[in-house]
Design a protein that fits this description.
By secondary structure, the protein is mostly helical. The chain contains seven helices and no strands. The chain has one domain. The model has no long low-confidence stretch (mean pLDDT 85).
């Protein structure tokens, strides 16, 4: 990242994560609405969005499904449909609109998602323990 370049992907991912939380909690409230099936669908959609935007193991192993930002934009846009139909989940749906716009912006900028790398083990003093070798006997 050079000076003056802004990465949109992290913002889109966090907004998608927050939208998933709003949709999940709205779906739980929606269970007491007359169309309870929409509440159940939104709970599933919210959990899916939260799992996909917070890199958990099943989603990081799916290759282009996880790394392609155009695919992410399309699936986030599709998640708006069931969420806009229920009043408690409409806030999450509105947030998803902006997440989709940010994913599109990140994709047009050529940004890419890369899986998180394992961190080096550190001791209590903050020193990197991976470079220290055990004594040979």
């Amino acid at each position: 990242m050079g000076l003056g370049r802004f990465n949109w992907y992290p913002w889109a991912r966090y907004l998608g994560l927050n939208s998933g939380f709003f949709i999940l909690t709205g779906g739980v409230i929606g269970l007491w609405y007359p169309k309870m099936i929409l509440g159940v669908i939104n709970i599933v959609v919210g959990l899916f969005l939260m799992g996909w935007n917070w890199p958990v193991a099943p989603f990081t192993l799916l290759g282009p499904f996880s790394s392609n930002l155009w695919i992410r934009a399309v699936f986030h846009a599709a998640a708006i449909a069931p969420s806009i139909l229920l009043a408690p989940t409409s806030t999450g749906a509105m947030c998803l609109v902006f997440a989709v716009l940010m994913f599109i912006r990140a994709a047009t900028n050529g940004e890419k998602w890369e899986p998180p790398k394992p961190r080096a083990k550190r001791d209590a003093g903050g020193k990197d323990m991976s470079a220290i070798k055990a004594p040979e006997n």
